[in-house]
Design goal:
The structure holds two protein chains of two kinds. Chain A is an alpha+beta fold. Chain A is built from eleven helices and four strands; from the N terminus they run αββββαααααααααα. The longest helix of chain A has about 80 residues. By secondary structure, chain B is mainly alpha-helical.
Chain lengths: ~450, ~450
Amino acid sequence: MEQATPDPERQLQPAPLEPLGRSDAGLGVTVDEEAERAREEGSGGDTMTHNNFWLKKIEISVSEAEKRTGRNAMNMQETYTAYLIETRSVEHTDGQSVLTDSLWRRYSEFELLRNYLLVYYPHIVVPPLPEKRAEFVWHKLSADNMDPDFVERRRIGLENFLLRIASHPILCRDKIFYLFLTQEGNWKETVNETGFQLKADSRLKALNATFRVKNPDKRFTDLKHYSDELQSVISHLLRVRARVADRLYGVYKVHGNYGRVFSEWSAIEKEMGDGLQSAGHHMDVYASSIDDILEDEEHYADQLKEYLFYAEALRAVCRKHELMQYDLEIAAQDLASKKQQCEELATGTVRTFSLKGMTTKLFGQETPEQREARIKVLEEQINEGEQQLKSKNLEGREFVKNAWADIERFKEQKNRDLKEALISYAVMQISMCKKGIQVWTNAKECFSKM
Amino acid sequence: MAGGPPKALPSTGPHSLRDMPHPLAGSSSEEAVGGDSTPSPDLLMARSFGDKDLILPNGGTPAGTSSPASSSSLLNRLQLDDDIDGETRDLFVVVDDPKKHVCTMETYITYRITTKSTRVEFDLPEYSVRRRYQDFDWLRSKLEESQPTHLIPPLPEKFVVKGVVDRFSEEFVETRRKALDKFLKRITDHPVLSFNEHFNIFLTAKDLNIYKKQGIALLTRMGESVKHVTGGYKLRTRPLEFAAIGDYLDTFALKLGTIDRIAQRIIKEEIEYLVELREYGPVYSTWSALEGELAEPLEGVSACIGNCSTALEELTDDMTEDFLPVLREYILYSDSMKSVLKKRDQVQAEYEAKLEAVALRKEDRPKVPADVEKCQDRMECFNADLKADMERWQNNKRQDFRQLLMGMADKNIQYYEKCLMAWESIIPLLQEKQEAKFPVTAVLS
């Protein structure tokens, strides 16, 4: 992967080349410091702008979505949606924003970016993408990916994804992310050239794989349980909410029938006619008000969905810890057994089973020279092993420290965001109740004039 | 009110008709039936006690008989104004206090009927009796028999077919009690029906069964008369005004039927919505148990949804108990009214047929035979009564529906107000800064 020199104007640093495990002691510290600074500079709740470390702001927006047709890898025609990403740089002094970059990306490229980030930042709770296919729909919404409402909500979700990354103290400085926003052609090749797929631990994807880890950090075990339960409860919530929306829709719409029958009835009445007719009109208004109400509620559902997917990201960090811990324990075990072997060879006692030992028994003793050679090899291996164990230990500790720092950050963000979501949900309900009172009060007045 | 006998003042306490000397006593025509345009005095009570009164269709009195003054004063005393307001009302009936009776053969409910009246027809100023549904049913049949030219109010349905309804549940009994109370009040408000002897017995008799068994023929002249109208005659054309009433009732019943179906559908949808809400709220509680800082806000939302669910349940109960039964009653009402209309047609048909038969006989005598005259009077009386009742019915219907629909709107307003209060009260809870909690189970506290 090419190493572009950091462009002071661009304010983003190149991505670290190796996974966070080698010679990262210095980087780890830096990350922490800079993370601190980012928090101080108030990158928190502000979703539209990002404060980076050189006090220049950039604004990112996914402003449009367009249907395209093209040829896929198998040279077959396909239809897909492309999204326009615009980046603006905001001059601190006069607040004017200048469009600096604008390019089109499709969903699969967003996926590629995220997969890359997952590999290179395993200690970070990586922001999730909006759902690939519409789930938890209630009957009115289409589950079709080409449906304009779905596309619109996805556009917003993708913008949110980019803003989350941009406001993350560590992720925002990634070079590949920077190129995603700025380099239209060739970006895919650039990402693939990092070789991140090779570095990816396939075990992370294997959900069924269990690792008997003897000493995991309890916090991570608890966190994994939490993320599982969070996923389960939010899924349940979204499913029931969709059914609730469905039923509510039915209630409102049936009232529309009153409009028609009151109108017909008013035709045969003398004094009652006017009151009935106008009341019927209010029933129509009532029935049609549900469409906007439920559309607003979809926004709330999307906020919940983001955290449903975040739970997955949380779990990924926990599993990474488990894997590292597992590798560490295996390495320690391996080292211990080699040391044992060495000791036995040196002292001549056989306590551990070894194939060599067995063959020796069967085919005769080995010569002292042979034994010396073997001891030497083992000693080398033991040395190497000790070095590896030391660095693995260091790796593990660094990982735990950095991951937990990000988890704390995530926790604050989650509490903040979900509280906001609940408040806005309550506000929506209040608005719905007020509208209901208004309509029925109007209808009541019409009835009183009957 | 059209011309004819002078408009009567509200009567404040008529003497018993038996005591009054009949101004036209001695006159021959017992059968003469008179009536005029609305509102007409119904002189059936007079006839039932053997008194004769004679007011010919053209509004005059037979030549050589009583002075206009005395007949009008008689009218004054007999005729009750349609618009009985509170001050002039002299009969009050209330249905309340349902009680369950468990006997060896059956279990049933009785209702207390309290009557207060200054009317002479009542020996005591106050009565309190207990009646069960079949007694009301008996009363209604008797009224239909004895007052066929009038619109008799409907009873709530005898059997409840829909669903598994408990006949002895509080809600069912209360709904029925209200309907029975309405039934009696409608009769009370009627200037003719309220004087019906069967009604009187219903309100006052200690043991109704004695009267039922004796089958006392308290049929009025009119009742007898109409009873014997043969149905064999075909009516050529319904007079315009009755045709209009017929058309109106047809469309009215149709629209009410539609409204009934819509209301039922709404209740059904609301109940299904309620079912989902009852699952939805608790999920927030489950989530709350996982969280630290978010625990209280989530629990608050859960409680809020619970309150809204309760409010919704109250709404559906109210609509089921108060709204639907009244709609059904009016559908039954218009059905029974259509039967009365048909009967009227029969009466007219018979008259016209007989008149035609006479005309064909080509007799010299211009005098109309007695039996044809009888038919004509019967028809005209019927028409007058029906028209009067229709107008009364239209007024009451308007008031009833205004009240019913305003009530429906009110219940919905109350539902939304309850929900609004619940959500508004939770906003401060959601907004307040939470102290970090450290429960043992929560991870991210």
